[in-house]
């Protein structure tokens, strides 16, 4: 069997390519406009800023936190035993198996759409997770809403609820779920950062207290916290061991959206009165006068608890002294009339 010549194969392969190169090197007609000569079609993706102007930022990256416009919390008072995390099995009401599976699929999609990285995106987007500014004054007692009940383990043996601990006392409640969130809370309530706050807590006796709620839904981290409980006990007095909660379950999305726990990696501070009402709230790092506002709010609530509500005093009107007028006729002094 004869094999074809190699030269014939090369000739057949190279001939179309040479023709294409010949056509590609042919000069363009003068009546056609070159693409590079149209500047409006070749704009850069990020145009350089003008003289003295800063590069433009996206609208989502220029978020400015604002003070709370209304009280936050629940309209009904909390009860011990709520939000324990024990949920009853949901019953799907579809008539057929496919309809019930579609309902289950919706729940699964909704659960997985709220992923772990959403919180880290909010940290970058909202000034280290700060989503709102604290108000300069506390909320009125008749307008304030209630702080929910949390159920979890304490530094003492067993589990407990936060409602019995908060009832009857003024409480500075610190809520966090990470070391970084705890560091943010320290900017409000740290012993070095806010010495006046701790002095008020010491002088109040049993009227005011500080309560920590460490929300840790990851069972591995919760196990590590339980392993190092001896260290946490050393940092606190024995009577304060029951005021440190490690919450693993029961913190639903409704609770987070209602009291402002919009970011699970950020620290939050609440002032809660004897009726478990939220009178003041702060998030993220303390900025401006937020730390002083927390101290003033605590002092105001301690006064309310003791029945010493401070009200602005009105200046008393001064009594007008009668002026002595000298008469020209008689030369006797007579009192001038007092105008009321």
UniProtKB/TrEMBL annotation:
Basic and acidic residues composition bias: residue spans: 54-63
Gene Ontology CC terms, in alphabetical order: mitochondrial inner membrane
Residue numbers spanned by region Disordered: 39-99, 301-340
InterPro entries in alphabetical order: ATP10
Coiled-coil ranges from the UniProt annotation: none
GO biological process: one example: mitochondrial proton-transporting ATP synthase complex assembly
One Pfam family it belongs to: ATP-synt_10
Family matches, as PANTHER family: MITOCHONDRIAL ATPASE COMPLEX SUBUNIT ATP10
Protein name: F1F0 ATP synthase assembly protein Atp10
UniProt source species: Melanomma pulvis-pyrius CBS 109.77
Organism lineage string: Eukaryota, Fungi, Dikarya, Ascomycota, Pezizomycotina
